Amino acid sequence: MPAIPTVTRYRFLIAFAFLIPALAALAILASTLLKGEKVRQLVINSLNERLLVPVEAGDISLTLLHSFPDVSVVLNDLKIKPKKGLSGDPGLLSARRISLRMGLFGFLTGNYTIKKLVVEEAVVKLWQGPENRVNYLIFKSSIKNSDSPVSFEIKSLSLVHCTIAWIDQNQHINLNFGLPRAEIRARSEGAKIHLRINLTTLPGPLHMGTADYSPAAGLDLISAITIDNTAKKCTLSETSFRFAGINGSIAGMIGFGRSAQDIALNFTVADAPVRQLLTALPAALFTRMKDYKLTGVLSANATLSGKWGKHVTPSFFGDFSLRDARLTDTPSGNALDAVNVSGKIELPFNGIPKIELTRFAAKSGQGRIAGSAGMIGFNNPVIHLKLSADIDLAGLGGFLPETINEATGRLAGEIEYKGDISGRNLAVTSSGSFILRDAAFTLAPGSGKISALNAQVSFDNGRVYIDKMKAQLGETDISINGYLVNLAAYLLNADQPLDGNLNISSANFRLEDALLLPANMSDTITQAGLFPKMVKFKADIGLKKFSFRKFTAENAQGNFTLTDNVMRTNNLKFDALGGSVEANGLINSRYNDHAALICNARLNNVDIRRLFYEFNDFGQSELQSRHISGRGDATVQLSATLGTDLVVDAASVKAVADVEIRNGELRNFEPLQELSRFLSEDQLMNLKFSTLRNRIEITDQTVIIPEMEVQTSALNLKGYGAHTFDNAIDYHFSVRTSELRKNRRRNPPPPTAIEDDGLGQTRLFLHMTGTVDNPEIAYDKKAVVNKIATDFQLQKLELRNAIRQEFSRNKPGPDPQKAKKQTQFQIEWDEDNK
């Protein structure tokens, strides 16, 4: 037999080498085809044995080619629907493809052990709804009498383009994030399970209640985890994450399986770009920072250690630093540069939490700020602040309190402050001082501007001492010295009081300028009355000139107090109306839509015409400044309601004035002109008198004039009556018959309207009614006149009683919803002592 050539032998060996695997592959493929239907059914049956709800798949196939050397049972269009009876609840799982993989050798030998799971394009919805219904408790607690050859020992899980959702309708939580890829591999070693995790998430919506906590960036995570079922702990090593371009690491241990277990984790972030972090984190966490832009580099290190469980929480300790940062107020464009901050956080279990900025520093233009700050406790925190600054206020726009706008000027000083941040015990200790130079600002947009502010202010244990403070408010200049108590608490907390003791002086003080300080007068009144809420003070004033609308005064001196929205003044003296005035009174601003004014005043040798003019004719339009002149003295007791614009409500005026007018003149007083049918018109045009004394009373929009006598060389006129603010009149006059016009003497009046006055003169009685525009004059009968005079005195007495009750100190407190006026003065009537 001839020898086989060498080349031929090699070809035979090569062909045989390929033939054996090919035959094996054909055998495996044949076995797969023969056993495929059986294995597919076994896997489905085994799955359903373990679940409370059946698995539904649109198509089930068995493949070797796509997963070699593993064999895969591929479930296409898989769905896990809600449990029976809960058809309205969402299903747990919907997946385009799930591959359950087993080893080729096991498959060939009938050992169907699923060791790897590949899930593609799946949506997992973990749902909790009303009546504590859930859709994810689908696994049976135990499997009885199972003889299935299929077992599950998952050591590898791959997720590809999946979405995970957590929906809690009871707590209004909706969490949704994508998983473009996730690899979880497991390896057993006795009681230990070693996991390696590599995953990437995509950001999705996260809503809790009405707040949106959706992140703007996904997370990359690589971790090695060891689960020790004997020691009941989970150890993390080689764990790193990347979020919004920021790299960090986590290492440590978490206990499990006990009511209180150990935890010791360390978190580290190094050189993180702050801007990227803030952009990626949920906007809801930074609502108060929405107008600010922060750049810089952040580094942090933190530990979580101790016990955790149902009734215990671990301690948290961390330190952080922010370097080379810049904080910009976006609306104004102002910025703090060269910001460097370092600090630490301590949250011990069963201990007092602390947050400390061990150092902070920043620049603003040519200015600087530096210091330290700390906060102890959360329930009633105490802060400790040290601050030094020399800065231009114009560069701090956007960083100052919201109540301060358009600030300019220079601030320099050093302060140290310690106190309760809630304001209830604020300023346990405080010290320091600052200087304001040429400062200006408004307290709100559209309010009056404070300018030319120069001040030296010092702090000492909760008090703010003001020395040489001068400022300009519109046309008003003002100088203040004294002290304020609890100023910081008042500025930081709306429910905290402010107390003060001040000396105020001014060369020219316009009350209108001071009233422009609130941002919106009507809002201020609606919320807290005319005066700032929670403010009380004592003030001694010295005003060289004072004005409010038409009223002007000079050399005003006195003291004011403000307590519970009631301003009182005592011993107020000033030169005004061409004479001098002494007064005391109050403005009660406890009502929401108005204030009550009470005033007792003594006017000495004042110009009567100026009195009526500067006080707007006391709210009535009948007897006006153009009608009257002379000089006089008066004692006035008045109450009225002030509207939100500080205008007197005419309907509310109640007043009693004991008046003495000297060298007086009543000119062109319309009601008297109507007597021209009986008396000479020349006599009525200008009634001059040397002295007139009377008590005038005003109530219910009616001026009541008691009986008085006007004696001139040409006329003797007696009368009394009432005149309403809407010009209804009711006057009773008597004149000497000798003074009647000649045509009236030829037509004598009836005897009942004439009486002898006992001095050899007869008097004629007249009655004027109607209105000023349409008066009606008739003869008055003497008997009627006497009765009316008696009734008039009774009406006056009732009026005094009504006003006395109005002013009474013992009057019950008002119902804030119903009361319109409140007074606290007692009027003493001269006639009561007679």
Question: How would you briefly describe this protein structure?
Answer:
The protein is mostly beta strands.
Characterization of the model:
The N and C termini lie far apart (169 Å). The C terminus is likely disordered. The chain has three domains: 141 residues, no CATH class; 139 residues, no CATH class; 314 residues, no CATH class. It has a 40-stranded mixed beta sheet that branches. It is elongated and about 150 Å long. The chain has eleven helices and 40 strands. By secondary structure, it is mostly beta strands.
Number of separate domains? 3
Shape call: elongated
Largest sheet: 40 strands, mixed
Distance between the termini: 169 Å
Poorly predicted residue ranges: 22-35, 519-528, 809-834
Specify the structural class.
mainly beta
Helix content: 10-25%
**What percent of residues are in strands?**
over 45%
What descriptors fit this protein?
3 domains, mainly beta, 11 helices, 40 strands, 834 residues, 40-stranded mixed beta sheet
Secondary-structure map with pairings?
Blueprint: H1 6-50, E1 55-63, E2 70-80, E3 93-103, H2 104-109, E4 112-128, E5 150-168, E6 173-189, E7 192-202, E8 206-208, E9 211-212, E10 219-228, E11 233-243, E12 246-255, E13 260-273, H3 274-280, E14 292-309, E15 315-329, E16 335-347, E17 354-364, E18 367-376, E19 382-392, E20 405-420, E21 429-442, E22 449-460, E23 463-473, E24 476-485, H4 487-492, E25 498-506, E26 509-510, H5 511-515, H6 521-528, E27 535-548, E28 551-563, E29 566-576, E30 579-588, E31 595-607, H7 608-614, E32 628-642, E33 648-667, H8 670-673, H9 681-685, E34 686-699, E35 702-711, E36 716-724, E37 728-736, H10 742-745, E38 754-756, E39 762-771, E40 775-779, H11 782-807
Parallel strand pairs: 4-5, 25-27, 26-27
Antiparallel strand pairs: 1-2, 2-3, 3-4, 5-6, 6-7, 6-8, 7-10, 8-9, 10-11, 11-12, 12-13, 13-14, 14-15, 15-16, 16-17, 17-18, 18-19, 19-20, 20-21, 21-22, 22-23, 23-24, 24-25, 27-28, 28-29, 29-30, 30-31, 31-32, 32-33, 33-34, 34-35, 35-36, 36-37, 37-39, 38-39, 39-40
